[in-house]
Amino acid sequence: METLVLLSTAGAGKTQLMVSFVECAREQGLVPGGIFWVTAYGNKEEVLSSFVGLVQSLLQCSLPEQDKRCTRAVVCSLGRALEKVEGRWLLCVDSADNAHTAAISET
Questions:
Q1: pTM
Q2: How far from 106 is each of 23, 61, 92, CA to CA, in Å?
Q3: Is 80 within 8 Å of 27 (Cβ atoms)?
Q4: pLDDT tens figures, 58-70
Q5: Residue 33 to residue 11: CA distance in whole angstroms
Q6: Are residues 70 and 5 in contact, defined by beta-carbon separation less than 8 angstroms?
Q7: DSSP H or E stretch at residue 21
Q8: 42 phi and psi, to 5 degrees?
Q9: Of the N and C termini of the chain, which has fewer Cβ atoms inside 10 Å?
Q10: Residue 99: which H helix or E strand, with range?
């Protein structure tokens, strides 16, 4: 798995750069497995809800209610869901510059 992180101050154009990268990757067929975009701003519950939505979309089923509130369960479910994706995929996490997102990523 390859990882790329864009880090800069607010308003520097990170999101626009990521959008351009995604468009190029899509046009060149570099990510046949899909491109998944999560916006990770807001409080912890809103950030977690964004990831729950992605997991449920990928798995095409609903997570149990207790799992939707458990960061570890959501992260593990996301990992399992992405393992099932055929071909190279791209996960974009936008606005991941707050303490709530850091708490989720450390799980």
A1: 0.80
A2: 29, 26, 17
A3: no
A4: 999 999 999 998 9
A5: 30
A6: no
A7: helix 14-27
A8: 110, -165
A9: N
A10: helix 99-105
